[in-house]
Amino acid sequence: MASKTKEEYIIEVSNLTKFYGKTKGIENVSFHIKEGEIFGLMGPNGAGKTTTLRSMLNLIQSNSGETRIFSKNLLNLSKIEMSNISYLPGEFEMYGNLTGQEYLKYLSNLRNAKTNNTNVLAERLDLDLNKKIKTLSKGNKQKIGIVMAFMNNPSIAILDEPTSGLDPLKQQEFQNIVKEYNAEGCSILLSSHILHEIEELCERVGIIKDGDIIASEQILELKNKTINKYEINFDKNPETLQISKIKGVSNLNIDKNIVTFNMQGNIDNLIKAISKYKVNNLRIIEPDLEEIFLTYY
Amino acid sequence: MFKNVYLKNLRDMKNNLIYWAIGITILGFYISYAYSSFAEDIDTWNELLANFPEELMYFFGGSEGMDMSTFAGFLNLEIFGLMGPIMLIIVGINSGTHIVAGELNNKTLEMVMSTSIGKNKYLFQQILVMVTRIVIISIILWSNFFIFANLFNLELDLKNLTAIVFHLTLLSLSIASFSLLIGSITGNKSTTLGLSAGIAVLSYFINSISPMIKGIENIKYLSVFYYYKHSEPLINGVNLESISVMLFISLLFIILSFVAFKYKDLY
User: Fold this and answer.
1) B18 to chain A, minimum CA–CA distance in Å?
2) pTM of the predicted protein model
3) In terms of CATH, what superfamily is A2-223?
Protein backbone atom coordinates (compact mmCIF):
# COMPACT_ATOMS: atom_id res chain seq x y z
CA MET A 1 0.00 0.00 0.00
CA ALA A 2 2.82 2.31 0.95
CA SER A 3 4.66 1.68 -2.30
CA LYS A 4 1.50 2.36 -4.26
CA THR A 5 1.25 5.78 -2.61
CA LYS A 6 4.88 6.46 -3.38
CA GLU A 7 4.29 5.87 -7.08
CA GLU A 8 1.76 8.67 -7.07
CA TYR A 9 4.42 11.18 -6.11
CA ILE A 10 5.75 13.07 -9.07
CA ILE A 11 8.62 14.38 -6.95
CA GLU A 12 10.00 12.62 -3.90
CA VAL A 13 12.91 14.13 -2.01
CA SER A 14 14.49 11.93 0.65
CA ASN A 15 17.01 13.00 3.26
CA LEU A 16 18.75 15.50 1.04
CA THR A 17 21.81 16.90 2.79
CA LYS A 18 24.26 19.50 1.58
CA PHE A 19 27.17 21.01 3.46
CA TYR A 20 29.28 23.81 1.99
CA GLY A 21 32.54 22.78 3.61
CA LYS A 22 31.65 22.73 7.29
CA THR A 23 28.67 25.05 6.88
CA LYS A 24 25.28 23.37 6.78
CA GLY A 25 23.18 24.18 3.73
CA ILE A 26 20.38 21.67 4.32
CA GLU A 27 20.16 18.50 6.35
CA ASN A 28 17.88 15.51 5.82
CA VAL A 29 15.33 17.48 3.85
CA SER A 30 12.45 15.24 2.80
CA PHE A 31 9.15 16.03 1.14
CA HIS A 32 7.03 14.86 -1.72
CA ILE A 33 4.77 16.39 -4.33
CA LYS A 34 1.78 14.64 -5.78
CA GLU A 35 0.97 14.80 -9.46
CA GLY A 36 -0.94 17.96 -10.27
CA GLU A 37 -0.19 19.55 -6.92
CA ILE A 38 1.20 22.99 -6.14
CA PHE A 39 3.59 22.62 -3.23
CA GLY A 40 5.06 25.62 -1.48
CA LEU A 41 8.49 25.73 0.05
CA MET A 42 8.46 28.51 2.57
CA GLY A 43 11.22 30.08 4.59
CA PRO A 44 13.13 33.30 5.01
CA ASN A 45 16.26 34.16 3.06
CA GLY A 46 19.10 31.81 3.90
CA ALA A 47 16.83 29.07 5.27
CA GLY A 48 17.94 26.61 2.58
CA LYS A 49 15.22 26.87 -0.07
CA THR A 50 17.55 27.50 -3.00
CA THR A 51 20.04 24.88 -1.80
CA THR A 52 17.18 22.38 -1.66
CA LEU A 53 16.10 23.12 -5.22
CA ARG A 54 19.64 23.08 -6.60
CA SER A 55 20.44 19.82 -4.80
CA MET A 56 17.20 18.29 -6.05
CA LEU A 57 18.14 19.07 -9.64
CA ASN A 58 21.76 17.99 -9.17
CA LEU A 59 22.99 21.50 -10.00
CA ILE A 60 24.95 21.17 -6.79
CA GLN A 61 26.27 17.93 -5.42
CA SER A 62 24.38 16.84 -2.33
CA ASN A 63 26.33 14.98 0.34
CA SER A 64 23.57 12.44 0.72
CA GLY A 65 19.94 11.84 -0.09
CA GLU A 66 17.99 11.20 -3.23
CA THR A 67 15.56 12.96 -5.53
CA ARG A 68 13.09 10.83 -7.42
CA ILE A 69 11.12 12.42 -10.22
CA PHE A 70 8.57 10.51 -12.30
CA SER A 71 9.38 7.60 -9.91
CA LYS A 72 13.00 7.49 -11.06
CA ASN A 73 16.23 8.72 -9.57
CA LEU A 74 16.92 12.11 -11.14
CA LEU A 75 20.19 10.84 -12.61
CA ASN A 76 18.34 8.08 -14.46
CA LEU A 77 15.82 10.33 -16.19
CA SER A 78 15.76 10.25 -19.97
CA LYS A 79 16.33 13.39 -22.03
CA ILE A 80 12.62 13.54 -22.81
CA GLU A 81 11.72 13.30 -19.13
CA MET A 82 14.29 15.95 -18.25
CA SER A 83 12.90 18.25 -20.92
CA ASN A 84 9.53 18.04 -19.16
CA ILE A 85 10.98 19.71 -16.10
CA SER A 86 11.47 23.45 -16.04
CA TYR A 87 13.43 25.32 -13.41
CA LEU A 88 13.46 29.03 -12.77
CA PRO A 89 16.44 29.90 -10.56
CA GLY A 90 16.07 32.52 -7.88
CA GLU A 91 19.12 34.43 -8.92
CA PHE A 92 19.95 34.26 -12.58
CA GLU A 93 21.45 36.28 -15.38
CA MET A 94 20.86 35.90 -19.08
CA TYR A 95 23.03 36.58 -22.11
CA GLY A 96 22.71 40.34 -22.43
CA ASN A 97 23.72 40.36 -26.08
CA LEU A 98 20.68 38.30 -27.07
CA THR A 99 17.08 39.43 -27.40
CA GLY A 100 14.48 37.79 -25.18
CA GLN A 101 13.18 35.90 -28.22
CA GLU A 102 16.65 34.57 -29.10
CA TYR A 103 17.39 33.56 -25.52
CA LEU A 104 14.12 31.69 -25.11
CA LYS A 105 14.56 30.00 -28.48
CA TYR A 106 18.03 28.87 -27.37
CA LEU A 107 16.76 27.37 -24.10
CA SER A 108 13.81 25.79 -25.88
CA ASN A 109 16.22 24.13 -28.33
CA LEU A 110 18.44 22.88 -25.51
CA ARG A 111 15.36 21.23 -24.03
CA ASN A 112 14.44 19.71 -27.42
CA ALA A 113 10.98 21.08 -26.75
CA LYS A 114 8.18 20.33 -29.17
CA THR A 115 5.74 22.99 -28.01
CA ASN A 116 6.38 26.66 -27.54
CA ASN A 117 4.00 29.16 -25.98
CA THR A 118 6.58 31.93 -25.78
CA ASN A 119 4.64 34.61 -27.58
CA VAL A 120 1.33 33.97 -25.80
CA LEU A 121 2.98 34.13 -22.38
CA ALA A 122 5.04 37.20 -23.31
CA GLU A 123 1.89 38.99 -24.41
CA ARG A 124 0.13 38.17 -21.14
CA LEU A 125 3.04 39.55 -19.18
CA ASP A 126 3.34 42.59 -21.43
CA LEU A 127 6.88 41.65 -22.37
CA ASP A 128 8.72 42.87 -25.48
CA LEU A 129 10.86 39.96 -26.64
CA ASN A 130 12.61 41.90 -29.38
CA LYS A 131 14.70 44.02 -27.04
CA LYS A 132 18.25 43.06 -26.09
CA ILE A 133 18.23 41.54 -22.63
CA LYS A 134 20.90 43.95 -21.40
CA THR A 135 18.47 46.84 -21.94
CA LEU A 136 15.68 45.27 -19.84
CA SER A 137 14.74 46.16 -16.27
CA LYS A 138 14.93 43.61 -13.44
CA GLY A 139 11.16 43.07 -13.65
CA ASN A 140 11.23 42.42 -17.39
CA LYS A 141 14.13 40.01 -17.00
CA GLN A 142 12.07 38.17 -14.39
CA LYS A 143 9.19 38.00 -16.88
CA ILE A 144 11.53 36.26 -19.35
CA GLY A 145 12.27 33.78 -16.57
CA ILE A 146 8.57 33.13 -16.05
CA VAL A 147 7.99 32.67 -19.78
CA MET A 148 10.95 30.29 -19.83
CA ALA A 149 9.42 28.28 -17.00
CA PHE A 150 6.13 27.63 -18.79
CA MET A 151 6.84 28.06 -22.53
CA ASN A 152 7.33 24.35 -23.24
CA ASN A 153 4.27 23.08 -21.31
CA PRO A 154 6.31 21.32 -18.62
CA SER A 155 4.97 18.48 -16.49
CA ILE A 156 6.89 19.92 -13.55
CA ALA A 157 7.80 23.55 -12.91
CA ILE A 158 10.22 24.34 -10.12
CA LEU A 159 10.14 28.04 -9.36
CA ASP A 160 12.49 29.80 -6.98
CA GLU A 161 11.20 33.21 -5.88
CA PRO A 162 9.45 33.64 -9.24
CA THR A 163 7.82 37.03 -8.64
CA SER A 164 10.92 38.82 -7.42
CA GLY A 165 10.94 42.27 -9.03
CA LEU A 166 7.45 42.01 -10.56
CA ASP A 167 4.86 44.73 -10.00
CA PRO A 168 1.59 43.70 -8.25
CA LEU A 169 -0.39 43.49 -11.51
CA LYS A 170 2.12 41.14 -13.05
CA GLN A 171 2.31 39.16 -9.82
CA GLN A 172 -1.43 38.61 -10.20
CA GLU A 173 -0.99 37.58 -13.83
CA PHE A 174 1.76 35.18 -12.74
CA GLN A 175 -0.65 33.61 -10.26
CA ASN A 176 -3.23 33.22 -13.02
CA ILE A 177 -0.65 31.53 -15.25
CA VAL A 178 0.37 29.15 -12.46
CA LYS A 179 -3.26 28.22 -11.79
CA GLU A 180 -3.98 27.65 -15.48
CA TYR A 181 -0.94 25.47 -16.10
CA ASN A 182 -1.66 23.58 -12.89
CA ALA A 183 -5.22 22.97 -14.06
CA GLU A 184 -3.75 21.47 -17.23
CA GLY A 185 -1.72 19.01 -15.15
CA CYS A 186 1.53 20.79 -14.40
CA SER A 187 2.86 19.98 -10.92
CA ILE A 188 4.51 22.98 -9.34
CA LEU A 189 7.09 23.45 -6.63
CA LEU A 190 7.04 27.07 -5.58
CA SER A 191 9.73 28.40 -3.31
CA SER A 192 8.97 31.77 -1.86
CA HIS A 193 9.14 33.95 1.18
CA ILE A 194 6.07 35.86 -0.02
CA LEU A 195 3.47 34.21 2.17
CA HIS A 196 0.30 35.51 0.57
CA GLU A 197 1.53 34.11 -2.74
CA ILE A 198 2.00 30.67 -1.19
CA GLU A 199 -1.38 30.93 0.54
CA GLU A 200 -3.05 31.90 -2.72
CA LEU A 201 -1.49 29.17 -4.85
CA CYS A 202 -0.43 26.20 -2.79
CA GLU A 203 -2.36 23.29 -1.37
CA ARG A 204 0.46 22.06 0.80
CA VAL A 205 3.48 23.77 2.18
CA GLY A 206 6.85 22.82 3.62
CA ILE A 207 8.40 25.20 6.09
CA ILE A 208 12.17 25.24 6.02
CA LYS A 209 14.26 26.65 8.82
CA ASP A 210 18.04 26.57 9.16
CA GLY A 211 18.26 23.89 6.50
CA ASP A 212 15.64 21.58 8.02
CA ILE A 213 12.03 21.02 6.99
CA ILE A 214 10.20 21.71 10.25
CA ALA A 215 6.66 21.29 8.97
CA SER A 216 5.10 19.86 5.84
CA GLU A 217 1.33 19.74 5.55
CA GLN A 218 -1.84 21.07 3.97
CA ILE A 219 -2.24 24.78 4.45
CA LEU A 220 -5.70 24.11 5.97
CA GLU A 221 -4.26 21.59 8.42
CA LEU A 222 -1.51 23.98 9.26
CA LYS A 223 -4.09 26.60 10.04
CA ASN A 224 -6.15 24.11 12.11
CA LYS A 225 -3.13 23.31 14.19
CA THR A 226 -2.62 26.91 14.98
CA ILE A 227 -4.24 28.98 17.65
CA ASN A 228 -7.32 30.99 16.74
CA LYS A 229 -8.45 34.01 18.68
CA TYR A 230 -12.10 34.00 19.86
CA GLU A 231 -14.33 36.82 21.04
CA ILE A 232 -17.80 35.92 22.30
CA ASN A 233 -20.34 38.58 23.20
CA PHE A 234 -22.92 37.02 25.54
CA ASP A 235 -26.29 38.50 26.27
CA LYS A 236 -25.35 38.60 29.97
CA ASN A 237 -22.33 37.65 32.02
CA PRO A 238 -21.97 33.82 31.74
CA GLU A 239 -20.96 33.35 35.36
CA THR A 240 -21.32 29.57 35.41
CA LEU A 241 -19.52 29.02 32.11
CA GLN A 242 -16.12 27.43 32.71
CA ILE A 243 -14.38 28.08 29.44
CA SER A 244 -10.94 27.68 30.97
CA LYS A 245 -11.69 23.99 31.48
CA ILE A 246 -12.21 23.39 27.76
CA LYS A 247 -9.24 21.65 26.17
CA GLY A 248 -6.97 23.98 24.18
CA VAL A 249 -8.15 27.24 25.71
CA SER A 250 -5.63 29.80 26.90
CA ASN A 251 -5.30 33.51 27.62
CA LEU A 252 -8.86 33.71 28.89
CA ASN A 253 -10.16 37.18 29.62
CA ILE A 254 -13.69 37.97 30.83
CA ASP A 255 -14.87 41.53 30.71
CA LYS A 256 -18.53 41.63 31.78
CA ASN A 257 -20.42 40.06 28.82
CA ILE A 258 -17.41 39.79 26.52
CA VAL A 259 -15.16 36.77 26.77
CA THR A 260 -11.93 36.59 24.77
CA PHE A 261 -9.52 33.69 24.65
CA ASN A 262 -7.18 31.73 22.38
CA MET A 263 -8.00 28.21 21.38
CA GLN A 264 -6.25 25.44 19.50
CA GLY A 265 -7.92 22.36 18.08
CA ASN A 266 -11.44 21.08 17.82
CA ILE A 267 -14.17 23.57 18.78
CA ASP A 268 -16.90 21.00 19.39
CA ASN A 269 -16.64 21.23 23.18
CA LEU A 270 -16.69 25.00 23.01
CA ILE A 271 -19.85 25.04 20.90
CA LYS A 272 -21.56 22.62 23.30
CA ALA A 273 -20.53 24.70 26.31
CA ILE A 274 -21.72 28.05 24.98
CA SER A 275 -24.93 26.67 23.50
CA LYS A 276 -26.53 26.93 26.98
CA TYR A 277 -26.14 30.72 26.86
CA LYS A 278 -27.55 33.40 24.64
CA VAL A 279 -24.79 34.61 22.33
CA ASN A 280 -25.08 38.01 20.64
CA ASN A 281 -21.94 37.70 18.58
CA LEU A 282 -19.09 35.24 18.00
CA ARG A 283 -15.93 36.35 16.28
CA ILE A 284 -13.14 33.95 15.30
CA ILE A 285 -9.93 35.62 14.20
CA GLU A 286 -7.92 33.17 12.10
CA PRO A 287 -4.21 33.81 11.83
CA ASP A 288 -2.95 34.35 8.30
CA LEU A 289 -0.09 32.26 6.98
CA GLU A 290 2.37 34.89 8.02
CA GLU A 291 1.42 34.54 11.67
CA ILE A 292 1.56 30.76 11.39
CA PHE A 293 4.94 31.02 9.74
CA LEU A 294 6.23 33.24 12.51
CA THR A 295 5.26 30.71 15.16
CA TYR A 296 7.99 28.48 13.71
CA TYR A 297 10.61 31.19 14.05
CA MET B 1 22.30 29.86 -34.67
CA PHE B 2 20.53 28.99 -31.40
CA LYS B 3 20.16 25.29 -32.09
CA ASN B 4 22.83 24.23 -29.63
CA VAL B 5 25.61 25.49 -27.37
CA TYR B 6 28.23 25.24 -30.14
CA LEU B 7 26.35 27.33 -32.69
CA LYS B 8 25.23 29.92 -30.15
CA ASN B 9 28.79 30.47 -28.94
CA LEU B 10 30.10 30.49 -32.49
CA ARG B 11 27.70 33.34 -33.16
CA ASP B 12 28.84 35.14 -30.01
CA MET B 13 32.50 35.05 -31.06
CA LYS B 14 31.84 36.60 -34.47
CA ASN B 15 32.71 40.19 -33.51
CA ASN B 16 35.66 39.10 -31.44
CA LEU B 17 37.08 37.19 -34.41
CA ILE B 18 36.64 40.22 -36.66
CA TYR B 19 38.65 42.38 -34.23
CA TRP B 20 41.37 39.75 -34.03
CA ALA B 21 41.45 39.48 -37.82
CA ILE B 22 41.83 43.25 -38.19
CA GLY B 23 44.59 43.37 -35.56
CA ILE B 24 46.51 40.43 -37.01
CA THR B 25 46.17 41.81 -40.55
CA ILE B 26 47.60 45.17 -39.49
CA LEU B 27 50.44 43.38 -37.70
CA GLY B 28 51.07 41.06 -40.66
CA PHE B 29 51.14 43.95 -43.08
CA TYR B 30 53.44 46.00 -40.85
CA ILE B 31 55.91 43.15 -40.27
CA SER B 32 56.01 42.12 -43.92
CA TYR B 33 56.30 45.69 -45.14
CA ALA B 34 59.02 46.48 -42.59
CA TYR B 35 61.08 43.46 -43.58
CA SER B 36 60.74 44.16 -47.29
CA SER B 37 61.88 47.75 -46.78
CA PHE B 38 65.07 46.95 -44.89
CA ALA B 39 65.83 43.62 -46.58
CA GLU B 40 68.63 45.30 -48.53
CA ASP B 41 70.43 46.26 -45.30
CA ILE B 42 70.00 42.84 -43.82
CA ASP B 43 73.73 42.26 -43.29
CA THR B 44 73.84 45.24 -40.94
CA TRP B 45 70.89 43.82 -39.00
CA ASN B 46 72.54 40.43 -38.74
CA GLU B 47 75.73 42.03 -37.44
CA LEU B 48 73.67 43.90 -34.86
CA LEU B 49 71.92 40.71 -33.87
CA ALA B 50 75.20 38.83 -33.62
CA ASN B 51 76.38 41.32 -31.02
CA PHE B 52 73.34 40.70 -28.82
CA PRO B 53 74.10 38.57 -25.75
CA GLU B 54 73.03 34.96 -26.20
CA GLU B 55 70.95 35.17 -22.98
CA LEU B 56 68.93 38.02 -24.47
CA MET B 57 68.30 36.01 -27.61
CA TYR B 58 66.98 33.11 -25.55
CA PHE B 59 64.61 35.54 -23.92
CA PHE B 60 63.27 36.55 -27.31
CA GLY B 61 62.27 33.02 -28.01
CA GLY B 62 65.27 31.01 -29.05
CA SER B 63 68.76 31.02 -30.37
CA GLU B 64 68.51 29.13 -33.60
CA GLY B 65 66.53 30.45 -36.48
CA MET B 66 67.33 34.06 -35.69
CA ASP B 67 68.81 34.63 -39.07
CA MET B 68 67.55 38.01 -40.20
CA SER B 69 68.71 37.36 -43.73
CA THR B 70 65.54 35.36 -44.35
CA PHE B 71 61.93 36.38 -43.83
CA ALA B 72 61.42 33.15 -41.88
CA GLY B 73 64.23 34.11 -39.49
CA PHE B 74 62.75 37.57 -39.11
CA LEU B 75 59.29 36.13 -38.35
CA ASN B 76 60.87 33.75 -35.86
CA LEU B 77 62.22 36.71 -33.94
CA GLU B 78 59.43 39.23 -34.37
CA ILE B 79 56.29 37.09 -34.38
CA PHE B 80 56.76 33.49 -33.38
CA GLY B 81 59.28 34.20 -30.62
CA LEU B 82 57.01 36.20 -28.35
CA MET B 83 54.20 38.21 -29.95
CA GLY B 84 52.45 35.25 -31.62
CA PRO B 85 52.55 33.10 -28.46
CA ILE B 86 51.25 36.04 -26.38
CA MET B 87 48.32 36.53 -28.78
CA LEU B 88 47.40 32.87 -28.98
CA ILE B 89 47.83 32.39 -25.23
CA ILE B 90 45.46 35.28 -24.58
CA VAL B 91 42.95 33.63 -26.91
CA GLY B 92 43.48 30.26 -25.23
CA ILE B 93 43.17 31.54 -21.67
CA ASN B 94 40.04 33.55 -22.48
CA SER B 95 38.43 30.64 -24.31
CA GLY B 96 39.23 28.08 -21.62
CA THR B 97 38.23 30.35 -18.75
CA HIS B 98 34.89 31.32 -20.29
CA ILE B 99 33.51 27.78 -20.47
CA VAL B 100 32.90 27.17 -16.77
CA ALA B 101 34.42 29.93 -14.63
CA GLY B 102 33.26 32.73 -16.95
CA GLU B 103 29.71 31.42 -17.21
CA LEU B 104 29.53 30.85 -13.46
CA ASN B 105 30.90 34.33 -12.85
CA ASN B 106 28.19 35.76 -15.13
CA LYS B 107 25.54 33.59 -13.41
CA THR B 108 24.37 32.35 -16.82
CA LEU B 109 25.24 28.69 -16.43
CA GLU B 110 22.52 27.61 -13.98
CA MET B 111 19.72 28.38 -16.43
CA VAL B 112 21.48 26.55 -19.29
CA MET B 113 22.27 23.52 -17.15
CA SER B 114 18.70 23.31 -15.88
CA THR B 115 17.67 22.25 -19.40
CA SER B 116 18.11 18.66 -20.46
CA ILE B 117 21.51 19.27 -22.08
CA GLY B 118 23.62 17.52 -19.42
CA LYS B 119 27.09 18.41 -18.22
CA ASN B 120 29.09 16.28 -20.65
CA LYS B 121 27.30 17.52 -23.74
CA TYR B 122 27.61 21.13 -22.61
CA LEU B 123 31.33 20.77 -21.93
CA PHE B 124 31.97 18.88 -25.15
CA GLN B 125 30.29 21.57 -27.27
CA GLN B 126 32.07 24.36 -25.42
CA ILE B 127 35.43 22.63 -25.96
CA LEU B 128 34.60 22.48 -29.67
CA VAL B 129 33.96 26.23 -29.52
CA MET B 130 37.31 26.75 -27.80
CA VAL B 131 39.16 24.68 -30.38
CA THR B 132 37.31 26.39 -33.24
CA ARG B 133 38.26 29.84 -31.95
CA ILE B 134 41.93 28.94 -31.55
CA VAL B 135 42.05 27.28 -34.98
CA ILE B 136 40.32 30.21 -36.71
CA ILE B 137 42.73 32.76 -35.21
CA SER B 138 45.67 30.51 -36.11
CA ILE B 139 44.39 30.29 -39.69
CA ILE B 140 44.04 34.08 -39.80
CA LEU B 141 47.67 34.37 -38.64
CA TRP B 142 48.85 31.78 -41.17
CA SER B 143 46.93 33.28 -44.10
CA ASN B 144 48.22 36.77 -43.29
CA PHE B 145 51.86 35.83 -43.61
CA PHE B 146 51.13 33.64 -46.60
CA ILE B 147 49.35 36.53 -48.37
CA PHE B 148 51.78 39.31 -47.36
CA ALA B 149 54.88 37.21 -48.14
CA ASN B 150 53.54 36.79 -51.66
CA LEU B 151 52.47 40.42 -51.87
CA PHE B 152 55.92 41.72 -50.93
CA ASN B 153 57.77 38.94 -52.77
CA LEU B 154 59.29 37.58 -49.60
CA GLU B 155 60.53 34.01 -49.52
CA LEU B 156 58.64 31.90 -47.02
CA ASP B 157 58.30 28.12 -47.01
CA LEU B 158 54.58 27.40 -46.88
CA LYS B 159 55.09 24.00 -45.27
CA ASN B 160 57.24 25.42 -42.49
CA LEU B 161 54.86 28.35 -41.94
CA THR B 162 52.10 25.80 -41.52
CA ALA B 163 54.31 23.86 -39.11
CA ILE B 164 55.03 26.80 -36.78
CA VAL B 165 51.38 27.90 -36.80
CA PHE B 166 50.36 24.32 -36.02
CA HIS B 167 52.81 24.25 -33.09
CA LEU B 168 51.44 27.62 -31.97
CA THR B 169 47.88 26.31 -32.18
CA LEU B 170 48.78 23.40 -29.92
CA LEU B 171 50.59 25.72 -27.50
CA SER B 172 47.40 27.77 -27.26
CA LEU B 173 45.27 24.64 -26.90
CA SER B 174 47.48 23.35 -24.07
CA ILE B 175 47.12 26.61 -22.11
CA ALA B 176 43.38 26.81 -22.95
CA SER B 177 42.86 23.28 -21.64
CA PHE B 178 44.72 24.20 -18.46
CA SER B 179 42.43 27.22 -18.02
CA LEU B 180 39.42 25.00 -18.61
CA LEU B 181 40.62 22.59 -15.92
CA ILE B 182 41.29 25.34 -13.37
CA GLY B 183 37.91 26.93 -14.16
CA SER B 184 36.18 23.57 -13.74
CA ILE B 185 37.86 23.02 -10.38
CA THR B 186 37.57 26.52 -8.89
CA GLY B 187 34.63 28.03 -10.77
CA ASN B 188 36.30 31.35 -10.14
CA LYS B 189 37.08 33.56 -13.12
CA SER B 190 39.79 35.77 -11.63
CA THR B 191 41.60 32.81 -10.05
CA THR B 192 41.47 30.96 -13.36
CA LEU B 193 42.73 33.91 -15.38
CA GLY B 194 45.48 34.69 -12.88
CA LEU B 195 46.67 31.13 -12.47
CA SER B 196 46.63 30.43 -16.21
CA ALA B 197 48.55 33.60 -17.05
CA GLY B 198 51.00 32.86 -14.23
CA ILE B 199 51.63 29.32 -15.49
CA ALA B 200 52.08 30.60 -19.06
CA VAL B 201 54.66 33.18 -17.94
CA LEU B 202 56.43 30.66 -15.72
CA SER B 203 56.52 28.20 -18.57
CA TYR B 204 58.07 30.82 -20.86
CA PHE B 205 60.55 31.78 -18.15
CA ILE B 206 61.60 28.15 -17.54
CA ASN B 207 62.20 27.60 -21.24
CA SER B 208 64.20 30.82 -21.52
CA ILE B 209 66.51 30.38 -18.55
CA SER B 210 67.07 26.62 -18.64
CA PRO B 211 69.74 26.76 -21.38
CA MET B 212 71.59 29.54 -19.56
CA ILE B 213 72.05 27.88 -16.18
CA LYS B 214 74.11 24.74 -16.08
CA GLY B 215 72.65 21.88 -14.08
CA ILE B 216 69.01 22.81 -14.57
CA GLU B 217 68.82 22.31 -18.31
CA ASN B 218 66.33 19.47 -17.90
CA ILE B 219 63.64 21.66 -16.38
CA LYS B 220 62.96 22.81 -19.94
CA TYR B 221 60.96 19.61 -20.38
CA LEU B 222 58.42 21.01 -17.93
CA SER B 223 57.76 23.98 -20.17
CA VAL B 224 55.14 23.81 -22.89
CA PHE B 225 57.12 26.54 -24.69
CA TYR B 226 59.94 24.07 -25.12
CA TYR B 227 57.69 21.77 -27.13
CA TYR B 228 56.37 24.71 -29.09
CA LYS B 229 59.67 26.17 -30.20
CA HIS B 230 62.76 24.08 -29.47
CA SER B 231 62.64 22.23 -32.78
CA GLU B 232 62.30 25.52 -34.73
CA PRO B 233 59.33 24.44 -36.83
CA LEU B 234 59.61 27.52 -39.07
CA ILE B 235 63.02 26.25 -40.16
CA ASN B 236 62.75 22.50 -39.68
CA GLY B 237 59.04 21.77 -40.08
CA VAL B 238 56.71 19.85 -37.81
CA ASN B 239 58.21 17.98 -34.88
CA LEU B 240 56.07 14.95 -34.18
CA GLU B 241 57.46 14.42 -30.71
CA SER B 242 56.62 17.96 -29.62
CA ILE B 243 53.17 17.79 -31.19
CA SER B 244 52.45 14.52 -29.41
CA VAL B 245 53.43 16.00 -26.05
CA MET B 246 51.27 19.11 -26.53
CA LEU B 247 48.33 17.02 -27.73
CA PHE B 248 48.75 14.68 -24.77
CA ILE B 249 48.84 17.62 -22.31
CA SER B 250 45.72 19.14 -23.87
CA LEU B 251 43.85 15.87 -23.88
CA LEU B 252 44.82 15.11 -20.28
CA PHE B 253 43.62 18.53 -19.07
CA ILE B 254 40.38 18.16 -21.04
CA ILE B 255 39.66 14.70 -19.59
CA LEU B 256 40.38 15.99 -16.07
CA SER B 257 38.06 18.93 -16.78
CA PHE B 258 35.19 16.53 -17.54
CA VAL B 259 35.79 14.84 -14.18
CA ALA B 260 36.05 18.15 -12.29
CA PHE B 261 32.97 19.62 -13.99
CA LYS B 262 30.91 16.53 -13.16
CA TYR B 263 31.32 17.28 -9.45
CA LYS B 264 31.28 21.07 -9.72
CA ASP B 265 28.53 22.92 -7.91
CA LEU B 266 26.94 25.25 -10.43
CA TYR B 267 26.12 28.44 -8.56
Assistant:
1) 17
2) 0.84
3) P-loop containing nucleotide triphosphate hydrolases (3.40.50.300)
